[in-house]
Amino acid sequence: MFIYSQEDKKGTLIAIDIMENDSRSPLKKQLSRFLVVGLSAVITDFTVYFILLTVLPHPPAKILSFIAGTLVAYIFNKYWTFEKPHRSNYELITFFLLYTVTLVANVGVNTLALNLLPQYTLLAFLCATATSTILNFIGQKWWVFRDPD
Q1: What tens digit of pLDDT does each residue of 63-116 get?
Q2: Could you tell me which of 81, 3, 95, 93 has the C-alpha nearest to residue 36?
Q3: Measured between alpha carbons, how far is 39 from 37 in angstroms, rounded to an integer?
């Protein structure tokens, strides 16, 4: 990846573009973009959650922050990671079905890990997040945003 900048005749910067190295495989490109988007979605979830906690109790704050993070993930994965610019009800529905399933998997892994090792809350969180991240990538790559056959 490299940054390309363009200046006008006076030397004033007028454009910056991030150019991708085309030598990467499509899967590696998508995976690296997916991780960037996922991190952005987690940051969105975290930030919105703590802002909303100033005016709402925990459950509605967490629900709304999860929705905000999910919207970030959907928009950026659709248009940037998997480059699917067309409108599709199928993609929207399958994306939210996938996130519902992976949310259940996330909570299940977190609960299981805490039952086995109750003193390791961070480890449980990381195991749950890793599980849902892997399931979300597989589901989005080969189900939600799959290429037509």
Answers
A1: 888 889 999 999 999 999 999 999 899 999 999 999 999 888 888 888 898 899
A2: 81
A3: 5
Amino acid type, 22: D
- Measure the CA–CA gap between 147 and 32, rounded to whole angstroms: 19
- 20-28: long-range pairs with CB below 8 Å, 24+: 27/141
Q: Are 104 and 58 in contact (CB under 8 A)?
A: no
Contacts of 129 (CB under 8 A, 6+ apart): 42, 106
Quick one: which of 82, 99, 81 has its CA closest to 145?
A: 82
**Rounded-to-integer distance, Cα 61 and Cα 67, Å:** 10
Classify 7 as helix, strand or coil. strand
Look at the chain and count its residues. Answer: 149
Give tens-digit pLDDT for 22-47.
Answer: 567 888 999 999 999 999 998 998 88
| Beta strands, E only, the chain | 2-7, 13-19
- Measured in whole angstroms, the distance separating CA 142 from the mean position of its chain's CA atoms is 16
Give the integer Cα–Cα distance in Å for 145 and 149: 12
pTM of whole model > 0.85? no
